[in-house]
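ARCHIVE CARD
CATEGORY: sequence design from structure
SOURCE FIELD: tokenized fold
FIELD CONTENT:
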């Protein structure tokens, strides 16, 4: 179980590369990610590294799964669609 101050590296779906990219945009804890939201976090990472491909399944869905405590592939299709619209909008 995680709490607000849980380091981002302790959340599911967050490996070293994702954690490094999140830290680079000021997201270091679960609370940071919750406050910013997965779509905005993805946008920030994408803006910071515009030439880098940040696949939605590995990044956007993983961030939402991290907040919910589940693997990104367990998110319902409707949730995935909502996230993509929010991130691309």
């Amino acid at each position: 179980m995680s709490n607000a101050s849980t380091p981002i590296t302790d959340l599911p779906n967050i490996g070293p590369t994702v954690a490094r990219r999140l830290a680079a945009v000021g997201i270091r804890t679960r609370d940071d990610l919750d406050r910013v939201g997965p779509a905005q976090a993805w946008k920030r990472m994408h803006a910071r590294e515009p030439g880098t491909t940040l696949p939605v399944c590995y990044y956007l869905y993983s961030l939402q799964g991290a907040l919910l405590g589940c693997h990104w592939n367990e998110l319902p299709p409707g949730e995935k669609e909502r996230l993509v619209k929010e991130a691309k909008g």
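CARD ANNOTATION: Residues 1 and 74 are 18 Å apart (CA to CA). DSSP finds five helices and no strands in the chain.
SHELF: design records, drawer C
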